């Protein structure tokens, strides 16, 4: 089988490729534009593997996408390429609209044109899996409110989540209008090895190792549901290759809700144990900063339907997953050190257009 996967040099995409190379005999065609967060290193042994093909291309380029389908003739598409950082979307929403909305439309049209020319058996077997986020559902306003599920109405609140909601709607429209065999999965906050250090867990972890302030938005009470990227990758492979049904929606989550402040304290506690700071407990570095504009209070999903459909359940609890992740960062300064030195040093994003 040949799988065309977009965004394979990204955090989640690279985890999916590592899993596909390690656990299947399929060929993976990795379409990636190589933006600021791309990491060739994240592919580990997959980089030189005979079943991994790297194609540097932009999903917004119709000719490049048509050529990719014509040359590689995939049976499955896994669409992960996206701009994904909320704070960056606040500072510059245009790139999110271009990549997440226009790029998805271009990819859908290239895939549909290719699919339309297949013979009946290959046409029936073809699948297009669009990977999305729980943020499209909006904000839960209390800890008592029922988690999101496959029937929750969309209510995106940030430029990022609005762009992902639009892409989800396009995928469903292509299915219902053209009969195109596409489906959507939505997931919660991912964490784990190889995550670009603009996101909360690597940002706080690396700041803590450097003795720098640990920024917490507002009072730190905002809640997210945290899934280890290896658990998510397993679920995505099961959905794309085995269980995903055209027109379906799969809410993939681990039931691991934590407030941002709880996450930061947990990071401090693990690092204090693994690599003590002579200056004292790292919780002393916690610094409350002005909240992000439009900061959603809580995201949480009920994954029951997806667990049944996929025959899957998250293996990592948050504590073991966090320690696994922090041990990895401690062992891989050769990767994140140059990024912090040259590409992203931990500066605040998402406040450029706000007062104060």
Give the biggest beta sheet: 7 strands, parallel
Q: Based on DSSP secondary structure assignment, what is the total number of beta strands?
A: 12
Shape: globular
Mean of residue pLDDT values: 94
Descriptive overview:
The protein is α/β, with parallel strands linked by helices. The chain has 12 helices and 12 strands. Strand 1 (2-6), helix 1 and strand 2 (27-32) form a beta-alpha-beta unit. Helix 1 crosses helix 8, helix 2 (62-72) packs parallel to helix 4 (93-116) and helix 9 packs across helix 11. The N and C termini lie far apart (54 Å). The model is unreliable at 352-356 (pLDDT under 50).
Annotate the secondary structure layout.
Layout: E1 2-6, H1 11-23, E2 27-32, E3 52-56, H2 62-72, E4 76-79, H3 86-91, H4 93-116, H5 120-125, E5 127-133, H6 159-178, E6 182-187, E7 189-191, H7 200-210, E8 214-217, E9 223-228, H8 229-243, E10 249-252, E11 257-259, H9 260-274, E12 286-289, H10 304-310, H11 318-331, H12 333-342
Parallel strand pairs: 1-2, 1-4, 2-3, 4-5, 5-6, 6-10, 7-9, 8-12
Antiparallel strand pairs: 9-11
Short description:
The chain has 356 residues and is α/β, with parallel strands linked by helices.
Structure keywords:
single chain, 356 residues, alpha/beta, 7-stranded parallel beta sheet, 3-stranded mixed beta sheet, 43% helix, globular
